[in-house]
Amino acid sequence: MVDERMSVSLAKPPRAASGPRGNVGADTRSEAAKEGAVILLRRELGDVLREQRQAQGRTLREVSAAASVSLGYLSEVERGEKEASSELLASICSALNLPLSTVLGHVSERVAETEALTAPVSLPVPSAALVSASAA
Questions:
Q1: pLDDT (tens digit, 9 = 90+) per residue, 93-105?
Q2: Pairwise pLDDT comparison (123 vs 7), residue with the higher score
Q3: Which one, of 47, 16, 15, lies nearest residue 113 by Cα?
Q4: Are 37 and 13 in contact (CB under 8 A)?
Q5: Cross-strand bridge partners of residue 98
Q6: Stretch (H or E) spanning 41
């Protein structure tokens, strides 16, 4: 008898996140991961940019002026509401005195952490030969 096993995924299907983001950290990412939320790069990137700016003790106004971008637009990028073009991202990174590769490395780490939390769990399922049912 051949032992055939099937994988059963227990992960919930992805759904779009909604509502205001607020201050997002690892706890919120793990909650989103448990709910099966879709990973949005613009949100992860915005979180990293905000964390880096705040770690430097700088305001949105200071960084937006140094990056030659409007304060409102930079705020939307940090909240993950707008996609930053590569040119804009380079300008923001320059204003923060951070290499683009460092920022993207932090984003990559965050995405990897979230993916690890949302990985489907496979369970062995007995083969059809071992399962019996009766209609009686």
A1: 999 999 999 999 9
A2: 123
A3: 47
A4: no
A5: none
A6: helix 41-55
What DSSP assignment string belongs to 61-119?
A: HHHHHHHTS-HHHHHHHHTTSSPPPHHHHHHHHHHTT--HHHHHHHHHHHHHHHHHHHP
Instruction: Work out the mean pLDDT of the chain and round it to a whole number.
Output: 77
Tokens describing residue 32: 């989103």
Beta carbons of 121 and 78 less than 8 angstroms apart: no
Q: How far apart are CA 2 and CA 65, in angstroms?
A: 68
Task: Convert the pLDDT of each residue in 49-81 to its tens digit.
Answer: 999 999 999 999 999 999 999 999 999 999 999
CB distance 78 to 43 below 8 Å: no
